[in-house]
Amino acid sequence: MEKLILDILEESEKKFSEMTAVKWLKKKEIYEISYRGIMEDVRVVRKGLAAEGFQGKHIALIGGSSLEWIEGYLGIITGRTVAVPLDAMLPVEDLADLINRSDSEALFLSPKNQGLLEELLTECPDLKKIWLLQEEPAELSDGRVTCLGKLKETGRETETDSERPDSGDTATIIFTSGTTGKSKGVMLTQGNLASNVRSVDFALEPGTVILSVLPIHHAFCLVMDWLKGFSLGTTVCINDSLMHMVKNMGIFKPEVILMVPLMVETIYKKLSAASPLIPKKMVAAKAFGGNLKILITGGAHLDPFYIDKFADYGIDIFEGYGMSECSPVISSNTPERHKAGSIGRPLSNVRISFEDGEILVKGSSVMKGYYKMPEETADTLRDGWLHTGDKGYLDEDGFLFINGRIKNLIILSNGENISPEEIENKLALGKLVGEVIVTGENNGLTARIYPDQDVVKAKHMSEEKIRTELQAFLDSYNKSQPTYRQITGLVIRKNPFIKSTTKKIKRQEAEIDEP
Questions:
Q1: pTM here?
Q2: Are residues 371 and 235 located together in one domain of the fold?
Q3: How far apart are CA 217 and CA 177, in angstroms?
Q4: Cα separation of 474 and 478, whole Å?
Q5: Domain boundary among 359, 376, 404
Q6: What is the CATH number of the domain that holds 346?
Q7: What is the pLDDT of residues 323-353, one digit of tens each?
Q8: In a shared domain, residues 413 and 388
Q9: Helices and strands in the chain, H and E counts
Q10: How far apart are alpha carbons 54 and 41 in whole angstroms?
Q11: Residue 328, preceding bond cis, omega within 30 degrees?
Q12: How is the chain split among helix, strand and coil, in percent rounded to 5?
């Protein structure tokens, strides 16, 4: 019988019963819960949902990382119910659209997002129940709105429990971030998720401290921080806000953090600004809390430059590759097997093929399809092969390399095909370069650069000085490049690029320069 997420969590409950599963900060105090404690809560949430008639239904979740959010999510997916995690940063009209498109009949909502209630109740007529993610009763007149505490009470009082799911049942629908076009609901089955958790070959000792900093609705965070982390008996510490990340590293003293490359690049620029007289490991200890050993990156390609530089600070970076459609991990570097510049070796449950340079993936983690989007599903899944849209290759040692998105290719009038990401990774190394996107314009390449504001302020740079230094940097870059890869245009932005909540630049909006 194939494993389910329920099996993985129950195994962890037995093996790590009294060990700390989660830590979080509330009113300047650290709270924690054991594996046995959180699984008891997950069970009563699941039983409460079954008792209230939501077995087999779709239930959405809106909120930032919290113990209550993860208990709600696990309560859903350990039963025969479908979880629909949504991006709490989206406008309310977009959230209402996704709730309706996903056929969600109930919602877990963070108290911090309580301001959305009135509009969601109006715009989502099929919502039968909303549980605020709090233990305290909800003081609202609408009978559809209650709290997680009441749902748990129901779960404790009932003998009813959800039917055990099958491995082919949809466990979760995760909407793509929609950096291009309409977001799609990726249907991942129980077997998809469990297979991915089992196949990620990354061993950590029980009790290893992880700081979870990525948005919790994101597949990379959900599977790697929470599901994989729980399977290994780690302690997952909740970072309540990116604004508090540095402070929380000092409080929780993590050993491992999952990040997207933009975070790595930003942190490195701050580390490298420290006095060269201070030992680098001392700088890192002050910045990261003293125990950080490993950064795991995904979501976009990381320039190998940072892997070398962070090693000087005593921190190893292991880059992986994945997408929501693959539950999400496809390949990963590990402490035992890694190669700088690669995105690791494919997981044991994955087969890789190529078609005109595009990476194709087949295996037990590949999605069931896009929810109610048969044409898009047929276009992406062909004969069981998932067409990733990424260009890449396998080297002689079996490591996978990626060199751009097919949709992002810039085709010049001379027929040359340019992957802008490769050039952007090089330009991002410039000390004055905060963010950069390369676009094709006038049969040449233009670098759109948002200058690093810390450098600008430290050097008291005028606009003219910024332009002079950036142009000199581009001239230096151009000397090492063939003509077709040289940057012929420079646009200096006044504002950062528009990003998705997973911190990816929305490339199709790169020309918009507004606060």
A1: 0.87
A2: yes
A3: 10
A4: 6
A5: 404
A6: 3.40.50.12780
A7: 999 999 999 999 999 999 999 999 999 999 9
A8: no
A9: 17, 27
A10: 17
A11: yes
A12: 35, 25, 35
Strand (E) positions, 166-278? 170-175, 185-189, 209-212, 235-238, 256-259
**Structure confidence by residue, pLDDT tens digits, 410-435:** 878 766 778 898 899 899 999 999 99
User: Are 51 and 112 in the same domain?
Assistant: yes
209 and 351 co-located in one domain: yes
User: Which residues form the domain of 469?
Assistant: 409-509
Determine the Cα–Cα distance for residues 258 and 229; give it in Å rounded to an integer: 11
**Residue 44: its pLDDT value, please?**
98
Burial class of 302 by CB neighbour count within 10 A (0 to 12, 13 to 18, 19+): buried
- CA neighbor of 25 nearest in space, from 332, 250, 237: 237
Angle of helix 280-288 versus helix 261-272 axis, rounded to 10: 130
Look at the chain and report how many structural domains it folds into. 3
CA distance 331 to 374: 27
Characterize the bridge pairing of strands 487-492 and 444-451.
parallel
Phi, psi of 15 (to 5 degrees): -75, -35
Residue 244 DSSP class? G
The residues, ordered by sequence, that sit 6+ positions from 244 with a Cβ below 8 Å of its Cβ are: none
CA distance 146 to 108: 10
Q: Taking Cα atoms as reference points, which of 237, 225, 79 lies closest to residue 161?
A: 79
Distance, in Å, from the CA atom of 477 to the CA atom of 485, rounded to the nearest integer, reads 10
Token couple for 80: 């025969």
- CA dist 187 and 103 (Å) reads 13
> What does the pLDDT average to over 305-315?
95
Q: First CA to last CA across the chain, in angstroms?
A: 53
> Do 419 and 387 lie in a common domain?
no
d(CA 19, CA 344): 31
User: Distance (Å, rounded) from C-alpha 178 to C-alpha 183?
Assistant: 4
Which residue's structure tokens are 């997207």?
260
CA-to-CA separations, 15 to 20, 74, 180, 481, in angstroms, rounded: 12, 18, 43, 55
Place 1 in a pLDDT band, splitting at 50, 70 and 90: very low
How many whole angstroms separate alpha carbon 331 and alpha carbon 347? Answer: 5
Type of residue found at 61: L
> Do 370 and 174 contact (CB within 8 A), yes or no?
no
CB 167 within 8 A of CB 192: no
pLDDT at 179 over 50: no
The residue count for the chain: 515
**What are residue 187's DSSP bridge partners?**
173, 369
Same domain, 389 and 437: no
240 token code pair:
């309540």
Taking the C-alpha atoms of residue 292 and residue 299, their distance in angstroms, rounded to an integer, is: 21
- Residue recorded with tokens 């709090």: 134
Sign of the dihedral defined by the CA atoms of residues 416, 417, 420, 426, in that order? negative
Q: Are strands 400-405 and 385-394 parallel, antiparallel or unpaired?
A: antiparallel
